[in-house]
Amino acid sequence: MNPVFRYAALAAMLALAGCSSTARAPESAALGPADLAFITSAYQLVQFDIDACSFVRKGPIEPAAMPAVDKVCADAATYKPQLRALAAQEGVTLPNTLPFDLKEKLVSLSYHPEPNLTVEFLRDEISSHESAIAVFQGELREGRNAAFRQKAQEALPVLERNLAMLRAALPTGTAE
Question: What does the UniProt keyword field contain (predicted)?
Answer without folding.
Answer: Signal
